[in-house]
Input
Amino acid sequence: MKNIAILCSGGDVSGMNPALKHFVEYSLKKGLQPYFIYDGYEGLIDNNITKAGYEDVAGIINRGGTKIGSARSKRFTLAQYRKIAKTNLDNLNIDMLIVLGGDGSFRGLDVFYKEHGIKFCGIPSTIDNDISGTTYCLGVDTALNIIKVSIDAIRDTAASFKRAFVIETMGRDCGYLALISSLTSGAELCLIPEIEYDLQSYEEEFKKQIKNGRRYFLAVVSEGIQQDSHDIADWFENKIGIESRVSILGHIQRGGNPTIYDRLMAYKFITHAINGLLNGTDESVVCYTKSGFELKSIDEVANVKHVLDKELLSYL
Output
């Protein structure tokens, strides 16, 4: 029986637990012995690695986060610790590794493979949806649904009090969450890092809307824009003439009950990852594109700048 292991690296997302469940079940179906590596690359270095079975994944499909923990590891960037990680895997006869994470995690894997020959497959897992080569990352749908519920609730109080609300989403330097949330919530203003903006250009139109009866404004902004969200709120008060508030959604976007879509995508990502390894693809990332699922090289994913869909940007 061949041995295969899985770990989570970087920020957690809802969808990781469904992925872990299917990893165990599909591995056993394929005659593989699954292992869990706890706390990401840190656990790989510290030998926090255990066999996994059905009992370990029972009842976790509806839970957010990751049962096996995640981490960002500075030690794994150093050759001496990668050597220790390799020894730990060798002692358990593990030569196949699946990693749920982002492009930084995949670059680390690439170095690990070139140094020590550990076969791997990466699964894009970040709510930022900022990984090149894939149109979808695990956890995005759950995050968008949490943002949707939050904005819908904020709209109620915004309308009741005649206020402008500036709602800040996560995303680092990628505006995907803010863009999609703005479009699907009918927000009056969307600010993202990918598009330069001038608040002054909105002033005449927004004042006109208030004069014609508008009671509130919703502005969805990404955390990576050039201004602080409170500066945007001050602009609404000082230039538009409407009371304003800021709601920074923060880490609630990462958690929560995984949506049906993220559960299904977790199932498919894991299936393609394991099949790829068994079919001889030793170094890859599972990507979801308009053509379906594809196994792509690290160079196509981690070393290419991510850009937002031009069609989506045209809707702003």
User: Anything to note?
Assistant: The mean pLDDT is 96.
